[in-house]
Design goal:
It is a single chain. This protein is an alpha+beta fold and 450 residues long. The chain is built from eight helices and twelve strands. The strands form three sheets. A five-stranded antiparallel β-sheet has the order 2-1-5-4-3, with helices on one face. Strand 9 and strand 10 form a beta hairpin. Helix 4 packs parallel to helix 8. It is rod-shaped. It is found in: Cell membrane. This is histidine kinase. One of its GO terms (molecular function) is phosphorelay sensor kinase activity. Its main location: membrane.
Length: 450
Amino acid sequence: MATGVAAVLLCIGVSLLFLLFAGNKEADGAQTRATAAWNRVVPLIRQGPLPSVLTQGRVEAIQVVNSRGQVVAATPQLVGKPPMADFHSTNSNVRAARVLCPPAGLQGCMTVASYKVYQPGGVWLLYVAVRVVPWYGSTTALLLAIGVSLLVTALMTAWSFRDLTKAMAPVNAIRAELAEITATALDRRVPVPRKYEEIKWLAETVNDTLDRLEGAYQQLRRFTSDASHDLRSPITAMRAQLEEALMHPQGTDWPKMTVAVLAGVDRLQAIVSDLLTLARLDARAPLSREPTDLGQLVSAELDRRTYRMMIVKDLRQGVVIDCDRLRITRVLVNLLDNAERHASSQITVTVLADGTDAVLEVVDDGAGVAPEHREIVFDRFTRLDASRDRDAGGTGLGLAIAREIAEAHGGTLTIQDSARGARFVMRLPRRRGRQDAPKVSGHSGKLGGS
């Protein structure tokens, strides 16, 4: 399309140059005709005989005016008429020219040339009139230029339309394919053309987007399936316990049955609470950030709770971050709950500064996580077999929530190598500028792990 427009503009430019050339050539021709008339009449004035009626030749009109201002000779249309003009050269030049609209005795605009002819009795004037030459030369040249321009424009338009039609064919194919892609056919991809780089890039981008969409949809389906399963299990167990109690009310240990049902309710509540937390994180709910000394925050939380395992603390002070304290505390609680499920006897909690990062590490002395499982454990509702064996009450959402919170703060949560057990490392950006923070107090509200 751009090539066609450029060609049309070039054609128009060439046509204008052609018309200017034709106009200049026609103007030169008019001046040549006037000069020829001068060469023909001046000898008659000087040598005679000068007829009263002159032949017109290739000019429009001729007049000869004597030194007393009388017309002594003229072409037929000006015989007996006054001079067609009243100007002459006022300097040493013999010739002067003006455009008159019209000259006396004539019609239309004409270029009148005035020539001085020196005679013994004074200066005579020879007037020669020719038609005014337009800038484009002649009507024939103008029509020729217009015709050629229209022809070239039509050809280029047809060529551009054909090329555009070919270029739009892959776009139409992409549109048709996208129109047929539904939630049940996310594996389909749009065709990628070999020509037209821009459309090729568009198709590749669309396919990349479809890849991400398919992955997200599959993850959503797995998430929905896992959530349904984890919610169904405690509901099924509670229903069975209640039905059995109703069938045998006299033989039921109601306090024991109530405790079992309440345990199922607690598990359902934990799952729902975690799901709501993930929903808020997915919605990118705003964080209540404030300067916080990470070491003091961790120390306060560790002192507030009791643990089944021995906690070894290595907490550096002055490691300040801008964070939502409640959510960072949730990360710590989830990591500690996970460590308690897998530790043999000891959990080590470390806070330190590493360049521009604040680092929180939670390390247990359990069996650890195999390298091939270090990313899987952060998927929602993922619990490895060892985790299920040791704690069947977990929701499988704790580590997913912890990573989402870390990423919402612009940080990361990963599993790193360690001599023994699992080593969870959270990195958050340290606060720039002044590295002080208000004293961290205890937190209210339920922050239970998963």
